[in-house]
Structure formats: structure tokens, C-alpha cells
Amino acid sequence: MKWYSKYLPVYEKPFAEVPAETVAEVRAKLAERQSDRPLATVSVIACNEEKRLTACLWSLAEQRCRYPMEIIATDNLSKDRTAEIFETLGLPWQRETTPGCGHARLCGLNRARGKYHINIDADTIYPPRYVETMVDALERRGVVAASSLWSYIPDAAHSAAGLWFYELARDTHLWLQSFQRPELSVRGLVFAYDTELARKVGIRTDIIRGEDGSLALGLKPYGRIAFVRSRRARAVTGYGTVSKDGTLLDSFRVRAVKALKGLGGMFFKKSEYKDEEDNLLK
Prior knowledge:
The chain has 282 residues and is an alpha/beta fold. It contains 10 helices and 10 strands.
């Protein structure tokens, strides 16, 4: 049985359908994870994630980590029961009243007490050694940030073979890209970094997407961005970005064409990128 199977019964379920004993268990375990002197801040951001949030927090509540940690949350103007879940499960949380992923990430970063800040997306489930493995990477000499990989939750609409090939191709591309352009291999759902350096660089709030890659770019002058390939740091998530392109094959075609166009520049460092007009917040 896969490590994440335990959490799937409450994934994509309204909070009202989560068993009371599960709620009590997650609340108690989350409280046990909280340290008054954390080395790492695990920062959850959520906007209308009621159906996926409980599974995410349950996986965080069962982290096996030798480092002291805290788990905090940010609600970005949810209209469902997201904020209520944070409250019911006893998680320290704050509402960010300006919409946007950058604002939500920044809200968490500003409240973090840990030396390291670990991004968490509310629609994602994390393996039991995730936090420990990411902190291990950050503790290495010269490392200022770390990014890892993720898989998609298997379902009837996507073949196992198709997912395996898709993820293998994507992982290989991200790995090759990470040598010279690690900022392009960073994804917010699996990204961790030095808290004080991130505050110094800043998280962009004027763009729709890519705030984490922009932060990674700003961190590069201070040290190395580690690319973590360990299964211990491989999260699982839904098909949000993939589904926007249609089928899995459609998504592969779109990303393959984009990767081939940028193949030549992948092996050369870059210190500046031009913003795309459609990515700027008006």
C-alpha cells in the first residue's frame, strides 16, 4: 500500500464528511508537531481548498522529523470552509486579504520563526520524511534553497503507464535544467529556503505565477539551490495544472514543445528574465 493511501479517503471530500475521530486525531498530532523554538517553519497556503486541505494537514501532522518545527497557515480569502478547518484543527493561521499566491506566501514568510521556510500547498499530500529531508538539504554547506519532485495521485482517468512516462520525462527535464537554471526547476508546492535570505530578496506580489521561481533567482547569488530527488521528499498532488491543457497527452505535448524551444539555453546560466505581459497583475 502506498504511503499516501491513508489520506485519500478524505481527499476531495467536504469537511462535513470527515469523520470526527479523524478530525480529533489530526488536531492532536498537529499540536504535537509544534515547537516553541522551531528550526523549520512549515507554511501552508490555501484558497478555497476545503476538499483537499484535511488530507494535506493530516500528512503534515504525521511528519517524522528529528528537527523542531512549527506549522502555520494562511487563508487567502477563501469562500468555503478552509479557514474553519484551520481553526478546528488548532493551527495558527492568518487571513491574507489581498488575493494572490505571492501575497499568501509572503504572509507566511513574515510570520515564520524558523531558520528555514518550507512551502506547502493545501492540495498536496506530503510523505512522512518530507520536512526532515528538505531540512537535511538546507543544512548542507552553501545551500540556500531546495526543491524536490512530485507525483500525481493515480485515478481511473489516467493510465499508470502514462503517468509513469509523463513524470519520468518531466523529472529528467527538471533535473537537467537544475544544473545551470535551477530557478526554472522550482515549483512552489515543493520548495524550501533560508528564511532571512528570502525576506531580504522578497517574494514578488505583482505577478500571477512564478513568484517562487523569481525568489529562487534572487537567492542564487547567495548560494546553491539543491535539487532533491529522494523519494522521501516526493509529494503527491492533484491534476490542476495538467488538466488545464486537456488530457495527459495534450499536457505532454504542450510541455514538450516548450522544453524543446528552450533546450539551447538550458545549459547556460541566466541572471535576469523579462516578464510576460499576461503574467503581470494589473
